[in-house]
Specification:
This protein is α+β, with helices and mostly antiparallel strands. It has helices at about 35-45, 55-75, 100-115, 135-150; strands at about 5-10, 25, 30-35, 75-80, 85-95, 130-135. A four-stranded antiparallel sheet has the order 4-5-1-6, sandwiched between helices. Strands 2-3 form a two-stranded antiparallel ribbon.
């Protein structure tokens, strides 16, 4: 991939949006799926740790980590918002695909969170949502949503 590409990236904290969730859920192979209590019960039963609800300190760690990692990589961070159960990031990353950007941000956030709470293994759900932003209008909408609609 070459050129400037912006992404709207979202990921959730561990256990807060399970497969089968009553709000619907994303199956990475098949797309959006409706609620399914049997799948949700199963997903809950195989969790290896408690659901992660991020504290104010942890949220600040996540946001600080994202800023620093974007600076290191030379990515333009347009907006971010770490909530108690999910993270939104709007970023322009030269020559990187969205999955790489997301995975790097999640990995560095995990490392820094583990420095505060070593016993915790799982901080995030697998994967996350990535939308490629193709124009100024889309970029503006993603920034506004991230900063104001949370």
């Amino acid at each position: 991939m070459t050129g400037t590409v912006s992404y709207f990236i979202t990921w959730t904290s561990y256990g807060t949006w399970l497969p089968g969730d009553e709000r619907g859920w994303m199956d990475w192979r098949r797309g959006w799926k409706p609620a399914n209590s049997k799948i949700a019960d199963y997903a809950r039963s195989i969790m290896t740790e408690e659901t992660v609800v991020l504290s104010e300190r942890q949220r600040q760690t996540v946001e600080d980590t994202i800023v620093k990692h974007c600076e290191i990589r030379g990515w333009h961070l347009w907006a971010q918002n770490c909530r108690t159960n999910h993270v939104h990031v709007v970023v322009t990353a030269l020559d990187y695909d969205g999955e790489t950007v997301r995975d790097q941000l999640k990995a560095w956030c995990t490392r820094n969170l583990k420095s505060q709470q070593k016993a915790k293994k799982n901080w995030w759900t697998e994967g996350g949502f990535i939308e490629e932003i193709e124009n100024e209008e889309g970029l503006s909408a993603a920034i506004q949503y991230t900063l104001e609609a949370q």
